[in-house]
Amino acid sequence: MDLRFAATAFVTAFTIMDPIGIIPIVLGVTATVPPLHRTKIVNQAVLVAGGILLFMAVVGQALLGYLGITLPAFTIAGGILLLLIAIDMLFARQTRARVTAEEEREGSEVPNPAVFPLAVPMLSGPGTITTILLLVNEARGNAANLFLVALAYIAALFVAWLCMRSATVLSRTIGKTGIHVVTRLLGIILAALAVQFVLNGLMATPLFHRGM
């Protein structure tokens, strides 16, 4: 087992999904629903997000090839997107790459916010899809590494499910300050991973090789 790749997969999955940071959104969009209905919404959101991530992991690279997008180009672009998300996390700002204030209000107005905004874009937004495609690319077809990617996102979704199920209790226990502290710590880690993805993409480009 590649322990370095395993660590990268798990840290990336957990930091980009940010289960603790989801808590305020869950409370906002389910404020008017009874606890039993909230549980159903959370279950549906995790299942939908898992399906989307599985689909993108399977067909994502083929889709990029069809569009003529090289893996180094996608790796660099993905790293830049993740860096922008990390900066928002560091300043405890609600990143627009996941959900905007308007989307959150719309989500609270619809009868069932499981698909929008919880599954998309909170759990399986552009940042999460980008990271899973980057990790599948880094796995380079190795079955053990691909299994690690799947395991990392299953674990991240499970923890996100636990946090969403316990959103009220966790919010009271750690408070807004605690949520911001955890989000900032994850933002630092995500920023470092984002820079590493950009460096990996640059090293894979012919232009970089010609400059060596």
Describe the structure using short key phrases.
0% strand; 212 residues; 10 helices; single chain; mainly alpha
Description of the molecule:
The longest helix has 37 residues, at 167-203. The chain has one domain (3-202). With 212 residues, the protein is mainly alpha-helical. The mean pLDDT is 86. The relative contact order is 0.22. The two termini are 32 Å apart. Helix 1 (3-17) packs antiparallel against helix 7 (126-139). The protein contains ten helices and no strands.
Mean pLDDT over the residues:
86
Q: How many E-type strands?
A: 0
The tally of helices reads 10
Distance between the termini: 32 Å
User: Any idea what the shape is?
Assistant: globular
Total domain modules: 1
Structural class: mainly alpha
Oligomer: single chain
CA radius of gyration is 17 Å
Low-confidence stretches: none
As a percent range, the share of helical residues equals over 70%
Strand composition percent:
under 5%
How do the SSEs run, as a string of H and E? HHHHHHHHHH
